[in-house]
């Protein structure tokens, strides 16, 4: 079975602080993909990043960085120097073959509050 | 259209009534998903369509829920005999092939069952 766990329900930080959102996954697939999505207060989910199971290279995009570690089945997301506009719900997701088809499952999400 | 379109954006219904929610995916996208997001909760997978293959219905919570996708494009999610616990935001997403690709989401339908 596939499962995505985001243990942090809510995080509150002050602007300019760094914050890391945790994601732990379970899968029996050897080939799979991991994703992060952002859901701002307006409601529409927006894709942030996709990584495949063969690429453990960490990635940095501006203030965002992702740390993928297969050994611990984790795909954590760090925002450096957070801003108020980063306030949103962030979802980690997993995609892989599962009983005959591919589907994407999501974690419960982490609500991030960035205070000015 | 330019993005995934869902209608209606809001639906209020009485317990026991049937409702239909519509999703118009991005043109050319062969994969279409329905998810449900209850207040303050994560995204619960409901059903997945991929091209002409049989849909993956493994996430539908009961036989009151059904979905179809006509002509490989527009999809309708039907909830029969609605219950109060069906109240949630129903999100539709599509992707070009569905095989491990990023999803494009619609704005959702907020369903309220009174």
Q: What attributes does this structure have?
A:
heterodimer; A: 116 residues; mainly beta; 0% helix; B: 114 residues; 6-stranded mixed β-sheet
Ordered list of secondary-structure elements with their pairings:
The complex is a heterodimer of chains A (116) and B (114).
Chain A (H helix, E strand, L loop, with lengths): L2 E3 L4 E5 L4 E3 L2 E3 L5 E8 L6 E7 L6 E3 L2 E6 L4 E6 L8 E11 L2 E6 L3 E6 L1
Parallel strand pairs in A: 2-12
Antiparallel strand pairs in A: 1-4, 3-9, 5-6, 5-10, 7-8, 8-9, 10-11, 10-12
Chain B lengths: L4 E3 L2 E4 L5 E6 L6 E7 L5 E8 L14 E5 L5 E5 L8 E8 L8 E2 L3 E5 L1
Parallel strand pairs in B: 2-10
Antiparallel strand pairs in B: 1-3, 3-7, 4-5, 4-8, 6-7, 8-9, 8-10
Explained architecture:
The complex is a heterodimer of chains A (116) and B (114). Chain A contains no helices and twelve strands. Chain A has strands at 3-5, 10-14, 19-21, 24-26, 32-39, 46-52, 59-61, 64-69, 74-79, 88-98, 101-106, 110-115. In chain A, strands 2, 5, 6, 10, 11 and 12 form a six-stranded mixed beta sheet that branches. In chain A, strands 3-9-8-7 form a four-stranded antiparallel beta sheet, with no helix packed on it. Chain A has a two-stranded antiparallel sheet with strand order 1-4. By secondary structure, chain B is mainly β. Chain B has strands spanning 5-7, 10-13, 19-24, 31-37, 43-50, 65-69, 75-79, 88-95, 104-105, 109-113. In chain B, the strands form two sheets. In chain B, strands 2, 4, 5, 8, 9 and 10 form a six-stranded mixed beta sheet that branches.
